[in-house]
Design goal:
Elements: E1 4-14, E2 26-30, E3 36-42, E4 53-59, E5 67-72, E6 80-87, E7 90-96, E8 101-105, E9 112-114, E10 117-119, E11 128-136, E12 139-148, E13 151-159, E14 164-174, E15 187-195, E16 198-205, E17 215-221, E18 228-230, E19 241-244, E20 250-253, E21 256-261, E22 275-282
Parallel strand pairs: 10-14, 14-18
Antiparallel strand pairs: 1-22, 2-3, 3-4, 4-5, 6-7, 7-8, 8-9, 11-12, 12-13, 13-14, 15-16, 16-17, 17-19, 20-21, 21-22
Length: about 280
């Protein structure tokens, strides 16, 4: 097992101007044009229910600011926490809140709505913040924030084609001793990566207060379907570390690993209104 550490200062990666005054939960993916593309929640308001489109940024490198391209998924309804993954030259964008929405694109600029099916999940098990992990050419796992037994949880689904997903269980749950219990669950923005045969789950754990807004817990498991039950450190799953970042993405470029952070203007952020980036070192 290795422990991730944030090193150095946070630098501004993207600051919207024309299509919002902040960026919240986001996704960053390498495009067929060789550039990095960012899609993130944006608005000019102060409430989650003002968030109805994604701002699109583009940059050649992760160590330089991105340019603002425009809006995506501006359809007049809520649009939260996108995740983009490429398969056979097509980009799939999953986003919430529930029911899960899917849009597809060839060029990462024009997005077309498409039907996606989630099967057999319990009630309230998949209501926002999707993340897709590719295991092989025909096997994908999707992690979605939900509620299980009235407490926060991360659901897990499996698919072979990115269009039909089967519920396979809860990858992470909250126990009775979990310190945060808002009605929507305190878990946000899961991100899972595989490193040296182990799986690392980054999950922002917050009740949206300023005190917890940037708390991201990291769990480690040999099984990507099971990270245990979190009880605040009192038995059960123990985080290997806590990082100060909100809804982070973990990225690699030129042998370096990076972490991002973001969030509302009225909550802590090292560079308010932006997506910021810093180096991540594994020790």
């Amino acid at each position: 097992m290795k422990i991730p550490h944030i090193v150095g200062d946070w630098q501004v990666l993207f600051r919207p101007e024309d299509h919002g005054n902040y960026v919240n939960d986001h996704t960053i993916v390498k495009g067929s044009d060789g550039a990095w593309h960012l899609y993130g929640i944006a608005s000019f308001g102060r409430r989650a229910y003002d968030e109805r489109w994604f701002v699109h940024g583009r940059g050649e490198r992760l160590d330089a600011p991105m340019e603002e391209v425009g809006r995506s998924i501006d359809r007049g309804t809520l649009a939260w926490a996108p995740c983009v993954i490429e398969r056979d030259g097509i980009y799939y964008m999953f986003y919430g809140p529930s029911p899960t929405s899917l849009a597809v694109s060839f060029d990462m600029r024009e997005w077309y709505g498409h039907t996606v099916t989630l099967r057999n999940e319990p009630l309230m098990a998949a209501h926002r913040d999707h993340f897709v992990l590719k295991l092989s050419e025909n096997e994908y796992l999707m992690y979605v924030v939900g509620v299980h037994e009235r407490k926060g949880a991360v659901s897990c689904f499996r698919s072979g084609d990115l269009l039909t997903w089967d519920f396979v269980g809860f990858a992470l749950t909250s126990g009775d001793d979990a310190p945060l219990k808002p009605g929507w669950g305190a878990m946000e923005s899961p991100f899972v990566l595989k490193k040296d045969g182990l799986y690392y789950l980054f999950i922002t754990y917050t009740d949206s207060s300023a005190e917890t807004y940037q708390d991201t817990l990291v769990f480690c498991s040999a099984d990507p379907l099971q990270f245990g039950q979190y009880n605040g450190g009192n038995g059960g799953a123990i985080p290997i570390t806590k990082l100060q970042a909100h809804a982070p993405e973990i990225l690699e470029e030129n042998g370096e690993t990076y972490i991002t952070t973001c969030g509302w203007l009225h909550r802590p952020n090292p560079n308010p209104g932006t997506v910021s980036i810093a180096r991540l070192l594994w020790k």
